[in-house]
């Protein structure tokens, strides 16, 4: 990609977002480990020095990217509506919707999954990885609480963790196989199993 003309002026935050967008593009093709700062600036069409103007290091970019992609995923996360669905039906709809999002745009999900794994082994990113996990658990717990489940706090937390693990497993399976039919069937089986467990608690 050609470099932007020197007359182009953007704020620091706009430049950071430009580089983060380019990083997602490059990492979707090459993977996180193989992505260099030079490849990112080339994809963004800016001089190499722009990277160091916006970020102290590649780890700093990874931190901002993981936080941004996590927040984006959370904003689009599924919602259970006690007023319109049974728990099983709502969960099935939510899981299938999430799977459809991944099928439509797998690149960002691949990057987020790889960033999450990398963060667990990077001392500079470990706390961010823990923060990400806490956000997801709290989100799902909040959804479960809308159903007024009469469960101890620890059990509610465990149920949230199981649901997250299931959705992540279904997503990873599809990203690996790209088998739509198998993904849909597995999602239905997961939702019916968890749904039966939860609805038994509601009776």
Would you summarize the structure shown here?
The chain is 75% helix and 0% strand. It is mostly helical.
Q: Could you characterize the architecture of this molecule?
A:
- The chain is mostly helical and 203 residues long.
- The protein folds into two domains: 12-55, Homeodomain-like (Arc Repressor Mutant, subunit A), CATH 1.10.10; 64-202, Tetracycline Repressor, domain 2 (Orthogonal Bundle).
- It contains nine helices and no strands.
- It has helices at residues 12-30, 37-44, 48-54, 58-75, 87-104, 106-120, 126-145, 153-177, 180-202.
- The longest helix is centred in the C-terminal third of the chain and has 25 residues, at 153-177.
- It is elongated and about 60 Å long.
- 28% of the residues are buried.
- InterPro entries: Homeodomain-like_sf (IPR009057), HTH-type_TetR-like_transc_reg (IPR050109), HTH_TetR (IPR001647), Tet_transcr_reg_TetR-rel_C_sf (IPR036271), TetR_C_31 (IPR041583).
- This is TetR/AcrR family transcriptional regulator.
- Residues 13-73 form the HTH tetR-type domain.
- Residues 36-55 bind DNA.
């Amino acid at each position: 990609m050609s470099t932007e003309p020197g007359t182009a002026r953007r704020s620091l935050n706009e430049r950071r977002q430009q580089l983060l967008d380019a990083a997602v593009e490059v990492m979707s093709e090459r993977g996180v480990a193989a992505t260099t700062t030079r490849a990112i600036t080339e994809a963004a069409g800016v001089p190499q020095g722009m990277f160091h103007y916006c970020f102290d290091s590649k780890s700093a970019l990874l931190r901002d990217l993981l936080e941004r992609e996590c927040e984006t995923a959370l904003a689009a996360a599924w919602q259970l509506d006690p007023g319109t669905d049974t728990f099983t039906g709502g969960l099935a709809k939510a899981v299938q919707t999430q799977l459809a999002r991944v099928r439509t745009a797998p690149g960002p999900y691949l990057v987020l999954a790889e960033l999450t794994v990398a963060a667990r082994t990077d001392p500079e990113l470990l706390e961010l990885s823990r923060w990400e996990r806490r956000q997801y658990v709290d989100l799902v717990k909040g959804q479960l609480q809308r159903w007024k489940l009469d469960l101890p706090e620890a059990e509610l937390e465990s149920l949230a963790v199981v649901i997250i693990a299931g959705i992540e497993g279904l997503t990873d399976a599809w990203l690996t196989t790209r088998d739509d039919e198998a993904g849909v069937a597995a999602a239905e089986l997961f939702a019916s199993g968890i749904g039966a467990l939860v609805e038994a608690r509601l009776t």
